[in-house]
Amino acid sequence: MTHPSDTGNTGLLERKAHALALPDALSMAADDRNLPADVRALLARARDALAVTRAEADAAGLRYHALFDAVPDPVSILDADGIVLDLNRAGEQAYGRPRADIVGQPIEVLNPDLPRDHLAPVWDAVHRGRTYVIEVTNMRGDGSRFPVEVHTAGFEHAGRPCLVAVARDLSERREAEVRYRELMDVMDRGIAIHDVAGRFVYGNPAALRLLGIRQGTSLGDTSNLGEWVAIGPDGNEMPWAELPPVRALRDGRIVESTLVGLYHRMRRELYWLTVTAVPQYPPGGDRPHQVLSLFSDVSALKRDSAMFDRVQALAHIGGWELDCGTDRLYLTAEAVHILDPAHPPATMEALIGLLLLPDRTRLRDALGAAMLDATGFDIELQGMRSDGGTFWVRAIGGPRQGDPATSRLTGTLQDIARDKHDEAILRAQARTDPLTGLLNRDAILCELETRMADPARAGVAVLYIDLDRFKFVNDALGHAAGDELLIAAAHRIGQAVGSSGSIARFGGDEFLVVCDAGAGASHAERVASAILDAFGDGFRFDTEEFSITASIGIARAPDDGDRPQTLIQNADAAMYESKRRIRNGWQLFTPALAQTQQDRLRVETHLRRAIDNDEFHLVYQPQVDLRSRRVIAAEALIRWRNRQLGEMRPDHFIDHAESTGDIVRIGAWVLREACRQTAAWRDAGLGVVRVAVNVSYRQFLGDELAAHVHDVLAEFALPGSALELEFTERVLIEDAPDTLRTFAALRDMGVQLSIDDFGEGYSGLNYLRRLPIHGLKLSQLFVGGVPGDRSDVAVCQAVAGIARSLGLGLVAEGIESEAQRRFLLDLGVTVGQGFLFAPGLSPDEFSRRLHGGPGPPV
């Protein structure tokens, strides 16, 4: 890069070369021994001074070049005729041309659109000591144009007038101006500019829309001030001198959000606006020449605020203000209505006197903190009116805005009595079982935990109560009757326990009582006996009466558990043992029961995998003609042999399977295995033997029982008459259309249908007539007592009479003596089974019995 004085002048270059060579000549002369010593010394000083001067000149040149290239905008140095003497690095980049292509060329190389005498006004401004500013279009090396703002100033170098021109690229500013105009057009806030005479200079579309000015209307048409009336927030007319734009122009300061109403006389329209006015100054001016107003339409909010007082009353919210110096209390009408309409408190101390004692301290503390620390508060308070009525309020307050001395506190009072009432209801509901009104599971667990954690209390006992045969009634009469039974049971338990314990419905038909354990003759045991006595009478529904009893397990803390969950689990284990052993009784928890519970879980775990592990097998008990002892059918009985548990009788695992739901899968396996064996006997030439299979009530509830039976019979090519399905009495009450359709479908296949253990459960003849069944099975529970037990004899006679009257077959179970066989024959029962004839036989043993015909029991 070359300094302007180095360009276009050969003489200057020669002088520069001479100047560069001069130090060398002086150095040689200073070393010449032929010259006098004083001359050599003088020449040496001249040489050194010249070297310093040259170094300073080189440093100045470097600084010039560094500063010249550091300027971010293009900078050109021109001579008096407009020839470019120098160009900085930013200029090379902006114009896209090397410096060598521009230096020495007229300025028109950068701006071909300049007029012929374009330097005249420039020099005119320079001679007057001013900078000349102009917006022009410059050209890049590729011919593209871009707008620039050029600032030109003059300076003199080596006696020559020169110009320095700085060009600022306006492309981004122009784009920003476009974006700004677009933003103004899409903003939803109005923007208007007025001059000092109040005339519209600019209004964006939102301003025109908010003021009701149609598109295309001249802004000048809206400037007739006589058509507008200004209205202040209080509803009175506002002088034009107080309008925000006028004040901003007058005071030269921003006027922030001010509510103004503008009423147009001709259109009879009122606009409520929030206006912020910003004064704008011209360049170099000390007084605003126009004002920019930003405004939003708040007509809807203003309209809503007119209803605020009414809303306060509807929302039960009142206002208050306290003069801290005099204790004078100011209340709105709604606040008076909330606190005490008859005797409204005139001071804060009088209001505090209305509150309950704990809340008086809370309010005093809150007021003190608000006055001393300028903090706000939000508290709930309860008090009593002069007429004895109570109130609940939410008090919100704090220092009044703009009051640094905190001389006044202000706030609101909200009537929350209804909310508190609702909260109390919700709290009660959260702790209460909605059906029985007793405590719910969560509430009793919380109470038990609290009592066990209290060292001052004596031992705590838990009574776990389960209703015997509840599921049967619920299934028999429907859920509505089941709910009635639970309500009645809860009432009886409540009467038996009284105030000596807490009662909860723990889930389903299970209840929990938490009481003191007592000592010696345990209080808990006496409570359990009282509950059992309360279930001594039957429960009546319509014309039917049911005997519902209870099984109770008792566990005491800390001996039977030091945590609520452990105590409940152990009481549950004791209840299960009571139900298993005696029913309608209570059982204390013992460590042995814990082992029983573990055994139960172990059985259920193995039972779930028994089918997959091929652990089940069937035995077949013959059904015989009681006269000839000839085998006429068989009942399939399931047996379970587990490698760890050993041989398990059905009464040891069927209940488990029923409770866990595994009985459905097990029942499906039994049905298929019995049909497979029947087909095997047929294929062995023994004929088709009818096999009876027990069907669980859970299987019956499934939607696919008939379809499943059909598929199994088809798989083994068996007729329906080869299969008999035995149901419990629970199906008698299922007279729903789906139930009847299932029975009808099974009967249409030829499948025999019978009711097992008839007489033990809900023996409703009304239901019995509606079901398309073939026969009944007389329970061994009654057969075992004949002919000696008169009650059993009477039951057997009744069941036999029912079967005859309805035309149903009858099979007697559990025949173990010749006297029983003869009694049943005399009663008209011709088919039976039991150990008198044979126990359950393996398939091979049963086939041998078929070959052997009548004979003594195996």
From TrEMBL:
Limits of the GGDEF domain: 458-591
Name this protein carries in UniProt: Diguanylate cyclase (GGDEF)-like protein/PAS domain S-box-containing protein
Residue intervals of the PAC domain: 132-182
Domain EAL: 600-854
Domain of life where this protein originates: Bacteria
PROSITE patterns associated with the record: EAL, GGDEF, PAC, PAS
Pfam families: EAL (PF00563), GGDEF (PF00990), PAS (PF00989), PAS_8 (PF13188)
Domain PAS positions: 60-113, 176-222
InterPro entries documented for this protein: Biofilm_reg_signaling (IPR052155), EAL_dom (IPR001633), EAL_sf (IPR035919), GGDEF_dom (IPR000160), Nucleotide_cyclase (IPR029787), PAC (IPR001610), PAS (IPR000014), PAS-assoc_C (IPR000700)
UniProt-listed SMART domains: EAL, GGDEF, PAC, PAS
SUPFAM superfamilies per the UniProt record, alphabetical: EAL domain-like, Nucleotide cyclase, PYP-like sensor domain (PAS domain)
